[in-house]
Amino acid sequence: MERVIEKIRKLLAMTKENGCSEGEAMNAALLAQKLMAEHNLTVADVADEHEEKSEIVEVPVDAGTKYKWKYRLANIIAVNFCCKVYILNKSNVVFYGYKNHADVASQVFEFLFNTGNKLANNYYYKCMKDGRDTVGVKNTFLSGFCEGIREVLGQQCRALMLVTPKEVEESFNEMMAGTKSVKSTMKINRDVHAYEDGKREGRFVANARSIEG
């Protein structure tokens, strides 16, 4: 078991801050999460002896102010990676949870957010080249992209029986007491092809980054 714990620690250390690419960091984070679930290990079990065990932290990701689809993606990631999430100053997506969970969530979110924006831009220019209506097509594509990701990650989450820890839920609710939630809507069009194409891309990206075995 000690070998598994050491492997998980090494995977969790593979972050962008330590020189890894977004894709590498995401792969490592997903594999660490899966190993923890398969071996029934908690955050405290894999934490280094010098680290604060079961520490609840806030990990922000700057997603800018103009991308409203970040709200939908952030909620999907938080639910599937045992965290809570809130938006700070309309730009920072903040994942709230045990350190290892929040780190995983932030890395996965950042990779998928950047990937989704690139794919949506490419899709927009393809539509423009083909003479298709481009009004709202990015948001429609991204709405499908989020749904594809939700389906894949949701299946994994249910398979591993992952839930947000009670302590995190209670701490988050206490911190957010008295605050008001802000609803954000995305303007989409009725281009079914854009939605389905986005959904297919979301599934592909999530599956391509999943770790098997």
* Oligomeric state, counting identical vs distinct chains: single chain
The SSE order reads HHHEHEEHHHH
Distance between the termini: 17 Å
Indicate the low-confidence ranges by residue numbers.
none
Question: Taking strands numbered 1, 2, ... along the chain, how are they ordered across the largest sheet?
Answer: 1-3-2
Mean pLDDT: 84
Radius of gyration: 18 Å
Q: Structural class given helices, strands, pairing?
A: mainly alpha
Shape: globular
Structural features, described:
The chain is mainly α. 60% of the residues lie in helices and 9% in strands. The chain has a 3-stranded antiparallel sheet with strand order 1-3-2, sandwiched between helices. The longest helix has 31 residues. The model has no long low-confidence stretch (mean pLDDT 84).
Helices and strands in order:
Elements: H1 2-12, H2 22-38, H3 43-46, E1 56-62, H4 69-80, E2 84-88, E3 92-98, H5 99-129, H6 137-160, H7 166-176, H8 192-208
Antiparallel strand pairs: 1-3, 2-3
Helix pairs in contact: 1-2, 2-5, 4-5, 4-6, 5-6, 5-8, 6-8
